Amino acid sequence: MLRELEKAEQKWGGSNKLIDQWLENRRKLLVHYCQIAGLPPYTKSEKSLPSFENVKSFCDLLVDYVSEGHFEVYDRVVTACEKFGESSKTLAQQVLPQITPTTNIALDFNDKYAEAQDDQVLYQLDKDLSELAQAMETRFELEDELLEVLHNKYSEQAQQA
User: Whole-prediction pTM value?
Assistant: First the structure.
């Protein structure tokens, strides 16, 4: 997922402040994910569960990222797609409902771990992180489809000007 993010940053980075901020927040989320999952380069020499504090911090980033998409970025993307014609608008209308299930998985993860007090819940973390990673990978791919449409349309518009 980090490699895909790097590709997205190379492709769309610098074209729009909102998109840059969004991609930076995605990076923070992915780095924190790797840290609590114990993935390279954040692998610990000894196997141990992450602290509740680290998991809660990740949950905060996760909810912020999901919320930012729904309440800031997607609205702007849809508005921009509407300006670029019916095909762009139709794509946005098809993609956004596909993102909703990933939001539900992220919020369920947050509900389970953000206020957890019992160490026993952390024994389920690996399984839940794996499910969350699959959902977020799907989400990132769908979000990138929207960004691709915007980028292509803005590029076309700039070339015609």
Answer: 0.84
